[in-house]
Amino acid sequence: MFKTLAKINKKLLSIYLLIAFIGLWEVGPRIGWANPNFLPPFSQIITAAKQITLWQLLIETVMSLRRIVLGFAFASLLALPVGFILGGAFPRLAKFLHSLLNFLAQIPAFILFPVFVVVFGVGEKGIFVVILWAAFWPIMFTTMAGVKQVDPLLIRSAKSMGANNITIFWKVVIPGALASILTGMRTGMTISFMMLIGAETMGANAGLGWLIHNSTNMGFIPRIYLAVVLIAVLGLAVNYLLEWLETRIIVWKEAVPDKLI
Questions:
Q1: What are the strands, taking DSSP E only, across the chain?
Q2: How far is 12 from 6, CA to CA, in rounded Å?
Q3: Residue 12 pLDDT grade (very low, low, confident, very high; cuts 50, 70, 90)
Q4: Is the pTM of the predicted complex or chain greater than 0.85?
Q5: Is the Cα torsion angle 224, 70, 108, 138 positive or negative in sign?
């Protein structure tokens, strides 16, 4: 009984911290720790949510999520093959392109947004390219790293048993690199969320980033925080989804005992 309660309590520790944070957010502006004009109490955020129709909030959330999914999907479709090719098939080409790729990866997508606007125009295309650029690099580099980390002994063993290159790729390389790839995809998704909000404030007429921009212009401070909370919840949900998929896909991953955590 006590062991079960202890396990439940351990799992809820992060929830306790979140509740304490929300409580501090509610109390702080009321007792003068923060200016309520710039940081309204959390209850005012809930009131702001009630003032906006559920349909409008759903539209803004769906628009942002749609842009994220499309940009991230295309980034994955491009980055994964490039990562496999440079990481395994053409290592000399990867060495030749190393400096150029690292240079390009250091350029934040948001800085390039004005260039994307000039090339692709204001609106969906520019936002799409920003997300694609942001997600492409972490996925590509982690894919390359994952392929390079595959044990050569496993590949030689597969070849000795008569496996062809396609079989080795599907049965050895992909399983060996999958953990690194999924880590890169989670990183790419996180960066995509950050770039999305900035891009929506500059070149969109709908979405959570646009809601922040519009609320700032109108002076609706609680709505700004409402959009920020929605973005955080959405990003957290997507991150948990990716974690859940990782636990279901990498079934051979060894669990770390609680005593070692």
A1: none
A2: 10
A3: low
A4: no
A5: positive
Query: What amino acid is encoded at 74 in this protein?
Result: F
Q: Please count the residues of the chain.
A: 261
pLDDT value at 11 more than 80:
no
Both structure tokens of 54:
């559920």
- String of b and e for 156-171 (b: at least 16 CB within 10 Å)? eebeeeebeeeebbee
Rounded CA separation 67/73 (Å): 10
Domain boundaries, the chain: 63-252
Neighbouring CB atoms inside 10 A of 33's CB total: 10
Paired tokens of 157: 């063993």
Over the stretch 108-144, which tens digit does the pLDDT of each residue have?
777 777 777 777 766 677 788 888 888 999 999 999 9
Tally of CB atoms within 10 A around 29: 20
Please work out, in degrees rounded to the nearest 5, the angle formed at the alpha carbon of residue 151 by the alpha carbons of 147 and 153. Answer: 135
- Name the DSSP letter for residue 31: T
- Residue 173 is encoded by which pair of tokens? 């390389």
In 204-220, which residue ranges form alpha helices assigned H by DSSP?
208-218
In this predicted structure, what is the pLDDT of residue 74?
93
CATH topology of domain 63-252: MetI-like fold (1.10.3720)
Question: In this structure, what token pair is assigned to residue 48?
Answer: 């702001």
